[in-house]
């Protein structure tokens, strides 16, 4: 997927957008298994970063971005511009991450 | 039987006080350590420029660009949450939570900068922040938040 350019600005400096292919998106809902949840609960007492959750969200974000890129590739785009992320907490320890952007063909 | 109930009540009180003091002392030490590391890494990554402006300077020049992203999930400690509970009775500033968000945002920016550096970029434009509460509205859960910083790393080709 290295040939697809992903950016959150609307243009690519020095390259022209030939065609706009519309919105592409990818999303995933993730939760951690109970053991790590309990550990995070203990970590909650002293506060600070919850590494297990950071990892979880990072994996989820990569997954969502990958799905978005796959969708873009499947409709023949070679770039996704103006990418935005949105995160929603579903329940304790589970969250949905959505990545969306505009698929374009760059020259 | 009544003695047993009393002991249980007492046990809860002791547990509460222990958690409160662990939260206060350990939480404070960890926070200071984290701030120290943040300040040091901020000095080290000064050469990577970060802008909230939408476009990179010199648009005519062909440039490589890629999305970079840094994120952190952070939670408040037991003591801070207790104080926040009291504080919400009278309103005003939640100092403990302010420092929490400050920590999380700066950490997220540092991670974003790290990613840019690892990919060989020295400038990030159009940086956006996003903050989400992860507790899912559950009552009694210690609040945890996710902070994301993302932007487009650019470099002249």
Short description:
Chain A has 107 residues and is an alpha+beta fold. In chain A, 35% of the residues lie in helices and 42% in strands. In chain A, a hairpin with a 2-residue loop joins strand 4 and strand 5 (94-106).
H/I helix tally of chain B:
3
- Distance between termini of chain B? 80 Å
Which structural class fits the helix and strand makeup of chain A? alpha+beta
Uncertain ranges of chain A: none
As for the number of domains of chain B, it is 1
Biggest sheet of chain A: strands side by side, in what order?
A: 1-4-5-2
CATH architecture label name of chain B = 2-Layer Sandwich
What about the largest sheet of chain B?
Answer: 4 strands, mixed
Largest sheet of chain A: 4 strands, mixed
Describe this structure in words.
With 107 residues, chain A is α+β, with helices and mostly antiparallel strands. Chain A has one domain (5-31, 57-106): Translation Initiation Factor IF3 (2-Layer Sandwich), CATH 3.30.110. Chain A is built from two helices and five strands. In chain A, strand 4 (79-91) and strand 5 form a beta hairpin. The two termini of chain A are 18 Å apart. The model of chain A has no long low-confidence stretch (mean pLDDT 86). By secondary structure, chain B is of the alpha+beta class. Chain B has one domain (2-156): Translation Initiation Factor IF3. Chain B has three helices and four strands. Chain B has helices at 2-44, 78-90, 95-118, and strands at 49-50, 63-75, 123-133, 144-156. In chain B, helix 1 (2-44) crosses helix 2. The longest helix of chain B is centred in the first third of the chain and has 43 residues, at 2-44.
């Amino acid at each position: 997927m290295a040939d697809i350019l992903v950016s959150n600005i609307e243009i690519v400096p020095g390259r022209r957008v030939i065609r706009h292919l519309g919105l592409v998106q990818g999303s995933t809902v993730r939760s951690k298994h109970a053991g790590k949840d309990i550990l995070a609960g203990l970590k909650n007492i002293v506060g600070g970063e919850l590494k297990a959750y950071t990892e979880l969200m990072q994996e989820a974000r990569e997954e969502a971005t990958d799905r978005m890129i796959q969708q873009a590739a499947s409709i023949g785009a070679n770039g996704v511009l103006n990418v935005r992320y949105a995160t929603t907490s579903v329940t304790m320890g589970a969250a949905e991450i959505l990545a969306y952007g505009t698929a374009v063909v760059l020259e | 039987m009544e003695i047993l109930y009393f002991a249980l009540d007492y046990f809860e009180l002791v547990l509460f006080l222990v958690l409160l003091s662990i939260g206060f002392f350990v939480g404070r030490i960890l926070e200071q350590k984290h701030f120290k590391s943040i300040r040091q890494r901020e000095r080290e990554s000064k050469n990577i420029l970060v802008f909230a402006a939408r476009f990179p300077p010199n648009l005519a020049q062909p440039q490589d660009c890629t999305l970079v992203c840094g994120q952190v999930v952070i939670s408040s400690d037991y003591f801070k949450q207790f104080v926040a509970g009291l504080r919400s009775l009278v309103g005003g500033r939640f100092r403990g939570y302010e420092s929490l968000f400050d920590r999380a945002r700066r950490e997220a920016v540092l991670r974003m900068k790290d990613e840019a550096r690892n990919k060989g970029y020295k400038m990030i434009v159009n940086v956006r922040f996003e903050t989400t509460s992860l507790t899912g509205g559950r009552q009694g859960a210690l609040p945890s938040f996710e902070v994301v910083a993302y932007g487009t790393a650019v470099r002249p080709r």
